[in-house]
Write a structure and sequence with these properties.
Radius of gyration: 23 Å
Helix content: 40-55%
CATH architecture of one domain: Alpha-Beta Complex
Shape: globular
Bound molecules: 2-acetamido-2-deoxy-beta-D-glucopyranose
Keywords: Membrane, Transmembrane, Transmembrane helix
Organism: Symbiodinium pilosum (Dinoflagellate)
Structural class: alpha/beta
Strand content: 5-15%
Protein name: Initiation-specific alpha-1,6-mannosyltransferase
Strand order of the largest sheet: 2-1-3-6-5-7
Order of helices and strands: HEHHEHHHEEEEHHEEHEHH
Amino acid sequence: MLKLWLRAFGQGAALVGVLGAAFFTYKQIVSPRRPRTPAKRVVHIFYDKEIEEAVAPHAARETLSAWKYNWRLAGWHPRILTTFDSQHSSLHDDLVHALSLARYKHASEKETSCLMRYVAMAAVGGGWLSDIDTVPTNLQPGRDLPNNGNFTVFENEFASMMSGTRVEFERVLRVLLRRLRKGKVSTGVPGVCSDKHTLRTMVAEGQILSMRLVIPADFWSDTATCANMTNNRSFAIQFSQASIENLGYLVDGRGALMNRTMDRWRACRNKNTLVV
Ligand SMILES: *[C@@H]1O[C@H](CO)[C@@H](O)[C@H](O)[C@H]1NC(C)=O
Ligand SMILES: *[C@@H]1O[C@H](CO)[C@@H](O)[C@H](O)[C@H]1NC(C)=O
Ligand SMILES: *[C@@H]1O[C@H](CO)[C@@H](O)[C@H](O)[C@H]1NC(C)=O
Ligand SMILES: *[C@@H]1O[C@H](CO)[C@@H](O)[C@H](O)[C@H]1NC(C)=O
């Protein structure tokens, strides 16, 4: 009887061993390739080639290459959204209709692109959205969306980075649509998007949340020390036109500047990090 029990126990242990090994193998081989929550490691950008590359195609492509490179190096999966993605949201037609009615007021194509990105984000289920001039510093991939997925902006400028669930992107989009229908959207400045004005108003009125976690590029000068570059617990850094001009660079050099600055930042961070 005791022998039988021992044998059953032995077989059980062997079975547990085999299952354990199988699970371990699964974790080693399968899971790294298929992260359980891919959306948490995805950063989105809205990039409509025709619009973005209409004025300065080379500069736009360079900036996009630097944007992708620096997000990837921080462990993120960059996903480029286009009008094609927007078409999967029922709000796409609403936006196109509202834009056509407001056509006489809104001069720039860029404006269309700025509003269309909210539709695209709603269509892909929400998450993180970054502007083309913004790359991560201390923001880690895989974390939950801040504030339980409530719509959040991370000023420096109001539209540099945003996060929220699909429902939240739709909610903000409906506010933008209402303003568009009332003719309140255009900034009157070509190439400048009006959505950041709406976001600013919504923050002031407590309709969306704001965390000051994006620093402007000129926060670090060319001569900034490592202590200077690593003492601010920002999520990201924004190479806006104003901030790179403050540093004495032209928009043409934005992509190269993003690469160079972030290479310096990574070197500083690695030097300061004792445990990798
Ligand atoms: C975010 O939204 C949830 C509901 O989804 C709400 O319960 C919560 O209080 C909100 N959090 C903040 C920080 O506003
Ligand atoms: C950063 O730079 C400024 C001068 O530009 C200096 O006053 C400050 O102490 C520096 N150090 C840190 C840790 O920020
Ligand atoms: C980092 O610096 C910015 C820019 O001045 C500031 O607004 C922000 O509060 C700082 N953030 C943190 C987390 O220290
Ligand atoms: C930034 O660096 C990456 C990696 O070397 C490169 O692929 C990309 O083209 C660079 N972009 C610019 C504008 O220098």
